[in-house]
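Re: Re: ligand-bound prediction request (bumping)

Still looking for help on this. To restate: I need the protein modeled with zinc ion bound, output as structure tokens. Inputs repeated here so nobody has to scroll up.
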Amino acid sequence: MSSIIGVILWIILCALTATLAERKGHKGIGYFLLALFLSPLIGLIIVACISNKTQKLCPYCKNAIDIHATVCGFCGKELTKKNSTNAEKEKWISERIVELISTGKTATDAKIQAEAEYSVEK
Ligand SMILES: [Zn+2]
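Reply:
Sorry for the wait, this slipped through. Here it is.
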């Protein structure tokens, strides 16, 4: 019985490692597997050391600001370089595809419509 509790605890700690990694903008599943096979303790230590991808440095005042910020909260300068990366586009489109499929569209139709909507909205 106690071994089952141990296994459950192990998995919970692995999930915690994954959650913390996700919060830092990293792929949670990779850290989950790492913690699962090595040790959640090692996983947590590694997650504590990895850089936070959800923040960037303001090019003007060098303060850490949100990665999606368009205006620096410290010096108020506008960050003209657009942060809409391909990854964000893919994420937006894939979320929209799921929405469209749930309304009864086929995957192909949903993809075409989502891409068309993205180009209009952005
Ligand atoms: Zn700044």
